[in-house]
């Protein structure tokens, strides 16, 4: 076997071709095995857990998909609403994190200043810090911000105002809303975006900016007119990576949200496992899993080169 | 006049980086640093569920000094099978052993796929990436099923293989319940149960494709002339691999390995769903235990102390990995 990675232009001998094909097919089988398992399950009309292993669908039934789309949970929330919540949350967090991160990444990549090292460590540490570690204070912090309707129909925004009698009807609780969860998710999305963008900015040659400086552009003009346009592809990738991460998030959402109308797709999927798993039809869980995974899978495959480039360039220079 | 102007300009340009950092630090101040400081304060108290309403203003909240930390370090928490240093050791070993397997496998498979003239190359490359895109929750559920004692594919597969060697008994390996380590003494101080091996297998499936994509990118940027020259000098394929491919892949693979390490180190979703840290907390990671403290036990004071400890561990890991990636940079330059 030639393991050098490149054969220098000559044809591959047939026996070697066949040998490598067998190896590749074996790897393919191991890769596809769990995926086919869940796909097959999703096309089944049986609701029980399969007692035998099936990897190729014997029947193609869309019953499970239909049921999931019709009535995804026991709560009165429709599939389009779940989709909307998931989309708004992931896209919102992705965009906000990106907007805040890009200027910080620029500062770390292009300027030399006193506190640079210290500030960079401060920004990057939350990357290694699990979101669970900060969830309690964030929960308490946001739980304080509530909008209440008082007896005299006036509106009080806590903690800045309170109703005269100290009570009031709860209208809005930041913690128990998609806004609050979004803010909590931004805490982990932001450092990742800075890291990812900084790595990419490091790879953009400085000559362009130096040329712009000679032409009289100041740092701000360079940033907006040269750096941002050049970083566009990476901005898209960073946004997408944030989007996937939050599209699949269920720990924070589950910790913060209590109203069924705020539920997301990932929460619904999570709800189908764990302690209620035995009451959940397996084909529906599988169908939901495919629905949650599919959009992400398609975009990931389309963008894989840029995504991987982004992650590794982000790490090259600390 | 001119001098004064240029001096003002330098002052302004010294401030500029801080202005660019301002939005990020304002936001992080509220949603990252404030919670962190809050956690530090809470970690010195006996904060429980009843204090949730008033927070730090609760009148009965008591400062207990370093009690929470001492309880964690001396395994004095009334939690079964909890030993901080064992969990810490396991956590590091888990992350390390994953990376040690994923990187070489990724490089090897990328190398195979890079063979010139290989049929169906593009299809393999596209399909091999699929594990990365499946939500971790789904991955965990599928693999939990594969390792199911009665119906799981793994036991069925082992039974078939056993059949070739004349063993006709059905295989009932209790992957997630067995507390006896199959290889005693493999990792001194933190026994590795079967659940660990099951998780390693599942996470291998999840982990190598990413490394393989990174390696593919790097392989394609190695100039072909190098191999041609080596061939003229009479180097064999294996020699070319060790003397050209491996050194030139290093700058790309080290950051990827670091990324993989930090990802595995905090692989909450996957571990939480596959084993829940069990059996007997033998596969507990720092993160899963932190989640347990908050979500199930509701000891917020202890959980805060634990979060602070995780933060300290993360800082050490960050400083070490940062060193390693810097080393790559020097390698590239030199």
Fold and architecture overview:
The complex is a heterodimer of chains A (318) and B (334). Chain A is mainly alpha-helical and 318 residues long. Chain A has one domain (28-316): MetI-like (MetI-like fold), CATH 1.10.3720.10. Chain A has helices at residues 14-42, 63-70, 79-110, 116-128, 132-143, 178-203, 207-214, 219-247, 251-256, 265-271, 282-316; strands spanning 146-149, 155-158, 169-173. In chain A, strands 2-1-3 form a three-stranded antiparallel beta sheet, with no helix packed on it. In chain A, strand 1 (146-149) and strand 2 (155-158) form a beta hairpin. Chain A starts with 13 loop residues before the first helix and ends with a helix. Chain B is globular. The two termini of chain B are 46 Å apart. Chains A and B meet through helix 1, helix 3, helix 4, helix 5 and helix 6 of A and helix 1, helix 3, helix 4, helix 5 and helix 6 of B.
**N→C terminal distance of chain B:** 46 Å
Q: What fold name goes in the CATH topology slot of chain B?
A: MetI-like fold
The CATH architecture of chain A can be named as Orthogonal Bundle
What composes the largest sheet of chain B? Answer: none
Strand count of chain A: 3
């Amino acid at each position: 076997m030639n393991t050098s990675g490149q054969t220098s232009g000559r044809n591959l001998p047939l026996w070697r071709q066949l040998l490598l094909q067998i190896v590749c097919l074996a790897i393919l089988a191991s890769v596809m095995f769990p995926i086919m398992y869940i796909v097959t399950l999703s096309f089944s009309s049986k609701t029980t857990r399969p007692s035998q292993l099936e990897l190729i669908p014997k029947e193609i039934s869309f019953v499970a998909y239909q049921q999931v789309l019709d009535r995804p949970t026991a709560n009165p929330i429709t599939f389009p609403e779940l989709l909307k919540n998931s989309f708004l949350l992931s896209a919102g967090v992705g965009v906000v994190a990106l907007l805040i991160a890009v200027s910080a990444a620029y500062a770390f990549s292009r300027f030399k200043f006193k506190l640079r090292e210290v500030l960079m460590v401060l920004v990057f540490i939350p990357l290694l810090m699990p979101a669970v570690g900060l969830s309690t204070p964030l929960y308490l912090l946001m739980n304080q911000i509530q909008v209440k309707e008082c007896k005299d129909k006036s509106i009080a925004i806590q903690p800045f105002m309170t109703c005269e009698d100290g009570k009031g009807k709860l209208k809005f609780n930041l913690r128990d809303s998609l806004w609050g969860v979004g803010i909590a998710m931004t805490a982990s999305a932001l450092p990742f975006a800075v890291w990812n963008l900084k790595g990419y900015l490091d790879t953009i040659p400085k000559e362009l900016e130096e040329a712009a400086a000679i032409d009289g552009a100041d740092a701000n003009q360079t940033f907006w007119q040269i750096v941002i346009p050049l970083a566009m592809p990476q901005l898209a990738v960073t946004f997408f990576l944030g989007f996937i991460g939050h599209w699949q998030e269920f720990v924070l959402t589950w910790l913060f949200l209590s109203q069924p109308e705020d539920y997301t797709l990932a929460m619904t999927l999570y709800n189908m496992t764990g302690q209620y798993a035995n009451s959940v039809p397996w084909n529906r869980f599988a169908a939901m899993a495919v629905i949650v995974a599919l959009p992400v899978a398609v975009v990931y495959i389309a963008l894989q080169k840029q995504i991987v480039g982004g992650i590794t360039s982000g790490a090259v220079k600390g | 006049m001119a001098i004064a102007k240029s001096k003002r300009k330098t002052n302004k340009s010294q401030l500029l980086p801080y202005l660019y950092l301002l939005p990020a630090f304002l936001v992080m101040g509220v949603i990252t640093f404030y919670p962190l400081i809050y956690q530090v304060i809470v970690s010195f108290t006996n904060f429980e569920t009843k204090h949730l309403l008033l927070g730090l203003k609760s009148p009965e909240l008591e400062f207990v000094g370093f009690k929470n930390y001492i309880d964690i370090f001396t395994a004095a928490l009334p939690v079964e099978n909890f030993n901080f240093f064992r969990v810490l050791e396991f956590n590091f070993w888990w992350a390390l052993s994953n990376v040690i397997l994923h990187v070489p496998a990724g490089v090897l498979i990328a190398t195979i796929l890079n063979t010139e003239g290989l049929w169906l190359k593009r299809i393999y490359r596209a399909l091999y990436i699929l594990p990365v895109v499946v939500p971790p929750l789904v991955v965990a559920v599928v693999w939990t099923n594969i390792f199911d004692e009665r119906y799981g594919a793994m036991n069925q597969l082992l039974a078939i293989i056993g059949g070739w060697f004349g063993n006709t008994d059905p295989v009932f390996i209790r992957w997630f319940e067995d507390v006896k380590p199959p290889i005693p003494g493999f990792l001194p101080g933190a026994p590795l149960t079967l659940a660990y091996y099951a998780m390693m297998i599942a996470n291998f499936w999840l982990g190598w494709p990413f490394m393989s994509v990174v390696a593919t990118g790097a392989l394609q940027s190695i100039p072909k002339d190098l191999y041609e020259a080596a061939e003229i000098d009479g180097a064999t394929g294996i020699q070319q691999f060790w003397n050209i491919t491996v050194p030139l892949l290093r700058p790309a693979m080290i950051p990827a390995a670091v990324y993989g390490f930090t990802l595995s180190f905090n692989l909450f979703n996957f571990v939480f769903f596959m084993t829940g840290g069990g059996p007997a907390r033998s596969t507990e990671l720092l993160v899963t235990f932190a989640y347990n403290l908050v979500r199930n036990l509701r000891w917020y004071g202890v959980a805060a102390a634990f979060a602070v400890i995780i933060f300290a561990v993360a800082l050490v890991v960050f400083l070490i990995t940062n060193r390693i990636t810097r080393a790559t940079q020097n390698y590239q330059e030199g």
